[in-house]
Amino acid sequence: MKKIFALFFAGLVSTAALAEDAPDALVQRVTEEVLEIIRHDKDIQNGSTNKVIDLVDKKVLPHFNFQHMTALALGKEWRKATPQQQQQLTVEFKTLLVRTYSNALTSYKNQKVVYKPFKMAPSDTDVLVRTEIHQPGNKPVQLDYSLEKLDSGWKVYDVVVAGISLVTNYRDQFGQEVRNGGIDGLIASIAAKNKSLEANQKK
Amino acid sequence: MTKSLGLSPMRMGRHWALGALLVLACAGNALAEENQRDPYEGFNRSMFAVNEAIDKYAAKPVAQVYDAAVPLPVKAGVGNFFANLGDLWIGANSALQGKFADAGVDVGRLLINSTVGIFGLFDVASELGLEKHEEDFGQTLAVWGVQDGGYLFWPFIGPRTVRDTAGFGVDSFVDPVWRVRPVPVRNSMVPLGFVDVRASLLPADKIVEEAALDKYAYIRDAYLQRRRNQIFDGRPPRLDD
């Protein structure tokens, strides 16, 4: 009897978790929350990098798996890196991605996000959620998210704009840096890039 | 010392030059081996540098002036006008790839936008739910099984694979803009189309500048990914990592 109760309870909990965290619903909820904030924030609309990074930090980043993103960007070399190098690289790559693509959010002007029909099997642990950005006078732009299921919920590990993966687009550049200066050389180049971007940013 | 080796200073110089050439050739080979998709990387990087200069001093400033001076409805109209002219050829390519339903949509778009949409200035068809497709002859060649032949970077037209360069040649040949008469009207339409395309890329400039460790490689890889996506109509099969 106890067992049945336990099972029943476990079932309840897991359906509740699923209902909350279906990957397509997650993408939609986070997108709408973020856009709602931008629509009401004049500073972000005027290009405040600090404020938009702050917003992305709070609302978006908890749903990303940067370790996986960095591994994907680096490819085979990832396994040759020490845990410490992996961690440093993840930190620098995260900073670079967040800074460059958060800035893109500041140019948001009433574009509409359309969520494409989504289907998944209950056992799926790796899915693609497809959306489209519609803007007047322009062709819609495809914007897709790859998500994986972890213990902590669904996490985004790749973002694909018009067919271009923002993560794997770094594969050759990272390979080039690693050939020239090893993993440490790569870490140093991204860190240098981040420094120069920070120095030039609009407050 | 030189004498004992039997080399005069001049021959020595020649040897040096030869050695340097050998090193260059080896470096070139090594680079080519490193990236099979970019066998002409040396040539491409020099063309890229040329194009960056043209862009910095001519194309981009003109596009920026256009973007800032022309009100949004006019810009949208210009974009729609050229897009509408393109729909007939897009339809032909859909048909050549065996996508006849798409071809029907493309021709329907042309008819609606040329009439109700006043010579294509308004994209009424999209609002009626007739989605615009992205097709060109390079994609048709790809669907027919032609390999891409390696990546190339051209001044003015930018990135194209060998196959897409051929495709672009055919696309340009059939482009109705070249048949517009009188000639002065045509001569102002061609650059307008160019400026319209360049202006539409302005927002991407900043992201590329900020995101790229190596701008050349970033643009190359983005172009190749994007083409693959277009060829598979937005649903490319997954690549194994």
Main traits of this protein?
heterodimer; A: 203 residues; alpha+beta; five-stranded antiparallel β-sheet; 7 helices; 17% strand; B: 241 residues; mainly alpha; two-stranded antiparallel sheet; 2 strands; 3% strand
Structural summary, described in words:
The complex is a heterodimer of chains A (203) and B (241). Chain A has helices spanning 2-21, 23-39, 42-45, 49-59, 66-74, 83-105, 171-200, and strands spanning 112-115, 126-134, 141-150, 153-161, 164-165. Chain A is an alpha+beta fold and 203 residues long. Chain A has a 5-stranded antiparallel beta sheet with strand order 1-2-3-4-5. In chain A, helix 5 crosses helix 6. In chain A, 27% of the residues are buried. Residues 15-19 of chain A have low confidence and may be disordered. Chain B has 241 residues and is mostly helical. Chain B is globular, with a radius of gyration of 23 Å. A two-stranded antiparallel ribbon of chain B has the order 1-2. At the A-B interface, helix 6, strand 5 and helix 7 of A face helix 4, helix 10 and helix 11 of B.
Can I get a quick summary?
The complex is a heterodimer of chains A (203) and B (241). Chain A is an alpha+beta fold. Chain A has seven helices and five strands.
Q: Globular, elongated, flat, extended or rod-shaped: what is the shape of chain B?
A: globular
Integer average pLDDT of chain B: 86
Structural class by helix and strand composition of chain A:
alpha+beta
Beta fraction of the residues of chain B?
under 5%
| Strand composition percent of chain A | 15-25%
What quaternary form is this?
Answer: heterodimer
Q: What composes the largest sheet of chain B?
A: 2 strands, antiparallel
Q: Any low-confidence stretches of chain B, pLDDT <50, length ≥5?
A: 1-32
Portion of residues within helices of chain B? over 70%
Most extensive chain-chain interface: A-B, 35 and 34 residues
Number of strands of chain B: 2
